[in-house]
Amino acid sequence: MASAAEQLAANMNFGALAKAKELQSRIWFTLGVLIIYRIGTYIPIPGIDPGVMSDVFTQQGGGLLGMLNMFSGGALGRMSIFALNIMPYISAAIIMQLMTAVSPTLEALKKEGETGRKKINQYTRYGTVLLATVQGYGLAVGLEGLQGSTGMAVADPGLYFRVTTVISIVCGVMFLMWLGEQVTSRGVGNGISLIIFAGIVAELPRALAGTLELGRTGAMSTLFILFLLIAAIGIIFFIVFMERAQRRVIVQYPKRQVGNRMFGGESSHLPLKLNTAGVIPAIFASSLLLLPVTLIGFSGGEGPGWVQVLAALLGHGQPLYMILYAVMIAFFCFFYTAIVFNPEETADNLKKYGGFIPGIRPGKNTATYLDFVLTRLTTIGAIYLVAVCLLPEFLIANYSVPFYFGGTSLLIVVTVTMDTVAQIHSHLMQHQYEGLIKKAKLRGRRG
Fold first, then answer.
1. How many CB atoms neighbour CB 260 within 10 A?
2. Contact 281, 385 (CB under 8 A)
3. pLDDT (tens digit, 9 = 90+) per residue, 358-380?
4. Where are the alpha helices (DSSP H) in 264-363?
5. Rounded-to-integer distance, Cα 199 and Cα 67, Å
6. Which of 143, 330, 417, 423 is deepest in the core (most CB within 10 A)?
7. Is the pTM of this model over 0.70?
8. CA–CA distance from 378 to each of 245, 298, 408 (Å)?
9. Domains in the chain, please, with CATH?
């Protein structure tokens, strides 16, 4: 079976893609949704002067505002209806997963299967509306006090502006959430991840062009630009290597006799990825850390003294920002891995079907061994994610890199690309298997 799967994977090409009509429909649907998303990033919130916003992001675009603007595909800089992107939904999902881990009621609801999952998703949507409302109102208040070199960002501040801004932001977030769910069910890949991916990819050419312009004017040396490009390519290879790394735990199945024939006795393996959580920890940590810092940045230097101190401590390259970012990434690595992989459940399934790990007793001992192996793998994966995500922070702090290219951005782009390609390969393999089954049936009828 494994050799057949490898042969099918090796034979995948554009010809096979042309024959898979359902896969083509899924790909076109996904591309159509991403185009709609990109159009929405250019629809502005009413009552905001785009010239002032452009001026503000020209002055502060190299910091946290520029980073969050890249995640939103430029929507924050244009202050469009998608300014918050999908971040409120991600924050609501984080809160719901944390509550599921500590609340017996939600944990029991999760174990109900599809019905429980739908209820939890509904609670997540309610939380998204609440967070988007609060964050949208904070954004509206911050915009009213925002001032550029040409004047105020909001021409007519007041209650009407705040209400229209909150409605626009909430509707934009909910529409993006719906688009992401549609891509996940009817398209290819994870819809939420693809929306963030599309925003980053859309801003990378502009960031690269700006860096090349700095090299042309002499503001940045050519050698340093070449170093950045080579480092980015090296990081891509490193991310691909680490994301594909896995520990294969050997699983043995005993022989059993049915009548006069012997069955079983074969060995298999249980693949445990080095980074089971994938890109989720980086997205979760960024969404939790960047949003409050960005709202502080919108205060324009005004407000209580502790707010200004907090903004200074959470700046790029500051020790507190680095520590919080690293701790959040490491925490979500272990937390998300514990959610998606349950050693006790896996051990029970192996025992149920007669499988065992050589040298390890079935049941509790197997669960303890799997937990031990997974903990060591997750530790290495957490160190890898922290190193990759903090690399651009050191570049920004020490070398004044004018854009956020590396670390989290490359991690999201590479990981989402690998996951999407893997899903496309899965659909192609399914299509080719169906074709082989149909041919076998036709030959059987002829025979």
1. 5
2. yes
3. 888 888 888 898 899 999 999 99
4. 280-297, 305-313, 319-340, 343-352
5. 11
6. 143
7. yes
8. 12, 37, 18
9. 2-446 (1.10.3370.10)
